Amino acid sequence: MGGFGWGDGFFDTPSDVAIDKDKYLYVADTRNNRVQKLDEYGKAVVTFGKYGEGDGEFHGPKGMAVDDNYIYVSDTGNNRVQIFDKNGKYLTKFGKTGSGKGEFNNPMGMTTGKAHQLFIADTNNHRIVELKLNL
Fold it and tell me: In order of start, what are the domains of the chain with their CATH numbers?
């Protein structure tokens, strides 16, 4: 599946994957600053993101999680988490640079919990952040 490159279905430094209940695979394509959603045959069906600081843009996405409705992406270089629908439509974001509540320093891996939680590895702050999701 994939290989080095910039086109759909190709990757430059993929750093995380997540799979949803419908068996779609989501890939954090870090150096291409995007996320790709692949079908069970490895074909890209949705690709979203580009380099930047705006809504829906990334600076090194490195972690992700999916639940029944949403895709959560740790936008590591921008020290935030962005949330998208399953078609890659930007919905919202949270976080900023720092070490206080609601702040991150190099967020990476993440997962969802059964009680509508999101757990985020806030790497350079040496902590795991637990958030209650209210979407």
Answer: 14-132 (2.120.10.30)
